[in-house]
Amino acid sequence: MPIERRRLLTTALGATAAALTPLATAPSASGAPSAAWHRVPHRGIRPDDPAGRAPLANPRRGFRYEMSYNAVDLTSPWPNEQDHSPDSARTLDLLEREYGPGANLTQLYFYLWDFATSTIPPSALDNIESVLRGLRRKGYAAVLRFVYDDGVRENRRYTVQDIQRHIGQLAPVVARNSDVVAVWQAGFLGTWGEWHGSHYAHETYPDAVTAIMTSLVEALPPGLHTQVRYAEKRDMITNRAILDRIGFHNDYVTLGEGEWDYYVPGNPGWPSYLDVSRTRMMDGEMPWDKGQSTDPYAWSTVIPGVAAARRLQTLRFDSLSLVHNATVTVPAWKTAELTERQTVDALLPVSDGYFRGRDGRPVARTQFEYLRDHLGYRIEVREARHDLSAARRGRLPVQVDVVNRGFAAPKHPRPVRLVLLDADGRTVASTDTGADWRDWRPQGRAETGDDHSGPAVATVSGELAVPAGARGPHRVGLALPDPAFPGRGRAVRCANASVEWVEGVNVIAKVRLGG
């Protein structure tokens, strides 16, 4: 179908998809529709809602900052980071002031130059763990990379065995702190851990690549992914059993204008990038601009925001650096308006109410806001249903319809729970629904022939056991907690102005029991 005609069709569909998508029929105990079911519709976040233009800080997605530490003493190898503190929480405060708010991730480099051919001492491991604790205090997570060669000091002569030994030492630290790790990148090899220029060129030998990546994947905590920079490096791995944990990071996002951006249609790796990005973590950064760097690869042409959104959505990106190209492209994104019509015409997802005020009139956003809000997943509740008549028998059936308006499917496993809260916000009943939120797929990819009419509706169902004697006002909630760290891991908040947020629970309905 010609692109213009497809755009016209999807424009019409995009404007009406929310109204036309049929909702699941709420069944009675016999399976037939029941008038006893109560329906609670929900809406997305509008720009003139309270905090309607603020970032929705959900775990392991979105814009990110960048910070680097020498593991030996928590100094930085870079002259422009000498004001960074060993206290990573203070450094994040500084980055928020310098680059503006809107991120809840940071690229976190640890340089192991001093220990490249020896054992990492306990003091350095303690330093690494202290930085991760600082991220936890700030509510951030790390795009984590361990590196030897910084391009300033002489490259070290580490071996595959050195790397494997260090992975073994680092694995317990990462496991204890995996609530603040979004992804553990492959790193180690070459300058900046980008898999080029290592002394022994291990990154060019399939046996070495396979050995290193097998050790790394086996060290990953459950549910965590790793990433490599190039499709050709992933293709070198002969241990095919580990590939489902390996995504990509593009460290030179220029939409193909720069010679080091291989994430473009027509590149031999493009089919792999499309395939892998559906279910594995994807991260990226633009080059430094000439206001930040004198290096020859610096890039000072504005990277168009809408085209960038199409590429990032097509490749299901979860995160993107806010620090790179921060004096050229990012300011341009912050001032460039983006309308609902432009977004639909670009075959990009449109969140419910995102471009509309409460009076229904169009409101323009900025390209920066749109990217900030749609990188990774963006979960919206559309409708909740419950059958109070069954509560007299001690059961409360509940259904919730959700959609994912983001660029990517969720990548980390989480329980999907229905909960019952009393008037004081205490959980008095809870049930795991068995739903896998990683199946909540986003809209079709903008730069392919996918269906662009909108994301599919997923229905979450379960029954809550009503405590004996429960009476009065209660609230029904949808909870997406961190399964490994229930006491400190961050829960996922839905992108709804009509959904109250109570201690990590999305309140989807209010009920009165015992009446």
From TrEMBL:
Residues 58-231 form the DUF4874 domain. Pfam families: DUF4832, DUF4874. Residues 432-457 are annotated as: Disordered. It comes from Streptomyces durmitorensis. Residues 1-31 form the signal peptide. Residues 245-485 form the DUF4832 domain. Residues 435-453 have a biased composition (Basic and acidic residues). This is DUF4874 domain-containing protein. Keywords: Signal.
